[in-house]
Amino acid sequence: MLRRSGAALMQLAVVMVTAASLAFLCLQLAPGDPATALGEGLPIAVREQLRTRYGFDAPIGVQYLRWLQALSVGDFGWSTSQHRPVFDVLADAIPNSLRLVIPAFIVSVLAGTFVGVWQAEHHGTRRDHTASALLLVVYSAPEFWLATWLIILFAGVWPILPPSGISSVWARYLSPLGQVTDALRHMILPVLAIALVGTATLARHQRASMLDALALPFMRSARASGLSRGRLRYVAWRHAVLPVLTMAGVLMPSYLGGLIFIEQIFAWPGLGYTMLRAIGAHDYAVVAAVVIVGSGLTATCTMLVKGAVHVLDPRQHQVMHHGMHHAGPVHRRPT
48: domain range? Predict the structure, then answer.
């Protein structure tokens, strides 16, 4: 177990450093730098002073080594566009993004599992075909397109939800319960925009996996023995959940990538919104830090999913039990 954990942590470090290094290289190859982004009317002498102050006049290799050295001690650098440490920029953006990603992931897993199991139980009926067609439309639609239609419907046609922002302007004057309610109302549309595609994806996989589980020989035997419908559903779902759980882990990278568009559409100050602003300002430190954090979150979610699959897979328990059964008694040396 310790060896496996150490290998997983090593893979996590390699993924983060590789992704951040590629981002650093791509940004360096892009035209311009933070001094260029300050405007055309800036004197050349001032630009050169800024390049010297932030170290952009050094060769790319020197800048890269300096950045790795600072990164090794937890220093993400200085944001040239927001004029504060990058760590503070991330401290403000990460919680806002997690407020969208975590609820969207929970909604996707619960709704996708429920819809997929329901479709498998009604396999071949008109309801199953209708649900499959709707899920295919949602699955094929881009997230920004879904977000735009959600705003049109629930903030335009039926103005019941706020179209953008993380809270209302007057939220500070509300009671604590009113502030929580206002924050939740602002979360609904962006969370739905992220969760809809994930729900459609998981529902399709849950339906297929559930149908395969129901066709297994032991399920037919259990059905013939008079096992209750609820118990049959649970046993089939237990054997069908592993592929779906693996697919759920793949959703996290797509969610993090979709945040760039979703947060921009809903003016949500998270990682995606911060990264777009940093790219426009040639703020290399912020962009590299967002890439590192995104890679770390993606790799961490993948590790957690692998661990969950290992725990839930009944074959793993059978192997462990078989190994312990045949290991034999432990003989101690007499003292």
Answer: 2-84
- Residue type at position 35: A
- Asked if residue 119 and residue 262 are part of one domain, the reply reads yes
Q: What is the CATH number of the domain that holds 135?
A: 1.10.3720.10
Tell me the C-alpha to C-alpha distance, in Å, between residue 288 and each of 25, 292, 295: 10, 6, 11
Residue 61 and residue 157 in one domain: no
DSSP code per residue over 245-303: HHHHHHHHHHHHHHHHHHHHHTT--SHHHHHHHHHHTT-HHHHHHHHHHHHHHHHHHHH
Beta strands in 44-152 (DSSP E): 78-79, 84-85
The whole-angstrom separation of Cα 183 and Cα 167 is 5
In-domain check, residue 317 = no
Reported pTM: 0.78
What is the distance between the alpha carbons of residues 256 and 252, in angstroms, rounded to a whole number?
6
Q: What is the mean pLDDT of each run of 10 residues along the chain (335 residues)?
A: 63 75 74 60 73 77 82 80 88 91 90 90 90 91 89 92 89 89 93 91 88 79 74 78 76 77 91 86 82 79 72 52 42 41
